[in-house]
Amino acid sequence: MITPNMNYAKLKESYLFFNIAKKTKKYLEENPDKKLLRLGIGDVSLPLCNEVIKALHEAVDDQSVKERFHGYMPEVGAQSLRETIAAYYNKRNVNIEADEVFVSSGASDELGDILDLFDKSSNALIIEPAYPAYVDASIMAGREIIHLPSSIDDGFLPLPKDDIKADLIYLCSPNNPTGAVYNKEQLKAWVDYANKNGSIIIFDAAYEAFIEDDTLPHSIFEIEGARECAIEICSLSKTAGFTGTRLGYTIIPKTLVRAEMNLNAMWVRNRTTKTNGVSYIIQKGGEAVFTEAGQKQIHDNINIYKNNATYLMEVLDKLGIWYCGGKNSPYIWMKCPNGMGSWEFFDYLLTEIQVVGTPGEGFGACGEGYFRFSMFGSNEDTKEAARRIYELLK
Ligand code: PLP
Q1: Which residues is 325 bridged to in the sheet?
Q2: How far apart are CA 150 and CA 363, in angstroms?
Q3: What's the gap in Å between 193 CA and the centre of ligand 1?
Q4: What is the pLDDT of residue 15?
Q5: What per-residue string of b and e applies to 339-350 under the rule 16 or more CB within 10 Å gives b?
Q6: In the chain, where does DSSP find H-type helix?
Q7: What is the mean pLDDT of each run of 10 residues along the chain (394 residues)?
Q8: Pocket test for ligand 1, best of 16, 203, 238 (most atoms within 8 A of CB)
Q9: The pLDDT value given to residue 17
Q10: What is the C-alpha separation between 101 and 122, in angstroms, rounded?
Q11: pLDDT computed for residue 330 by the predictor
């Protein structure tokens, strides 16, 4: 009998969103007249911007005309989109070439697939609390995980420790769930550690477009030495509302070499074997995100989400409650008041003011006692939720 990948038996059931759904359903059954204000999920609520819609329509029409029809696309991405994304980095003085950009159907796919490049014996360092995919993809691949807890003391931005020997290092900045963002000096510490130890950083930049503070790095490649130790994984999901449309990109510098193996060349080989590329239509839509008009329109949407954050930040400031995120990120991570546990606070908000958030404990043990609010909901709901939170906790 064939033996399945027994690593799947080691996966822990994720009860987080299941429990949230169960609790809210029960509450609504018992209180049918109540309306919930949902600040829990990390999915976007605004539609794609006009520039993208226009490009998608044009690309659909192309597919109906023999002369403009596209069959298989290059597995690593359309050359024009690779050049466009490289130019997006170059504008910020980051030296990335088009053939260092790999177009993907999103960050989630890549965060797990990229593990193909590394020997099974290499371990993965994951900072807690964490986006759950890092842990689960590493478990499926049979890797040892080193959990590095973070806390209020380091602002949920821990730095490397010399006594920890990590092979792969997952960094996420701006972070989901905490909204915390590493500055250049802190990222330099990680890059120096990786170069000293021969490790590879997998830098998840899914929320880079939310950074408004000019001093903060959008990309690991803004840090000297990163071209020798880092891979960056990014997505248009939150940047441009592509959660249901699906497009992302991965940057692997040609200077990234371990044991005389070039990781860029290895990934070309991997993609040309394991994918047949992303659809022509979607890549055209993605390209429109990077035009001048596209950038303006997606930032108008991002500013609507950021505006949501200001309502809640104002209230938490007034209440004197510790939090991080919000300013350079679509998430706010707050300390639960009066020593409450994450789920206790969840129940309290649900039953007292009908506000739904996400208990921090669901992102790892050290998230206990914290709570995540997502700013991707509607303006009115977020404003009303902030008002109710103030009235409840003042
Ligand atoms: N990385 C982080 C930190 C995320 O929060 C998410 C989605 O919520 C992803 C990656 C996945 O992005 P995608 O939709 O491109 O798969």
Answers
A1: 332
A2: 12
A3: 26
A4: 78
A5: eebbbebbebbb
A6: 16-30, 50-62, 79-90, 107-113, 132-140, 184-197, 237-240, 263-274, 280-289, 292-319, 342-353, 379-393
A7: 94 85 95 94 93 98 98 98 98 96 96 95 96 92 95 97 96 98 98 98 98 97 98 98 98 98 98 96 98 98 96 97 97 97 97 96 94 95 97 96
A8: 238
A9: 86
A10: 25
A11: 97
How confident is the model at residue 2, as a pLDDT? 94
Residues in the chain: 394
Give me ligand 1 centre to Cα 173, in Å: 12
The number of the ligand 1 atom at minimal distance from the alpha carbon of 42 is: 8
CA–CA distance, 392 with 385 (Å, rounded to integer): 10
Domains annotated for the chain, with CATH where assigned, are 7-38+294-393 (3.90.1150.10), 50-291 (3.40.640.10)
Ramachandran quadrant class, 3 (left: phi over 0; alpha: psi -120 to 50; beta: rest) = beta
User: Going by CA atoms, what residue is nearest to atom 2 of ligand 1?
Assistant: 206
Q: Is 107 in the pocket of ligand 1 (CB under 6 A)?
A: yes
Contacts of 264 (CB under 8 A, 6+ apart): 99, 100, 252, 253, 254, 256
Rounded distance from Cα 107 to ligand 1 centre (Å): 6
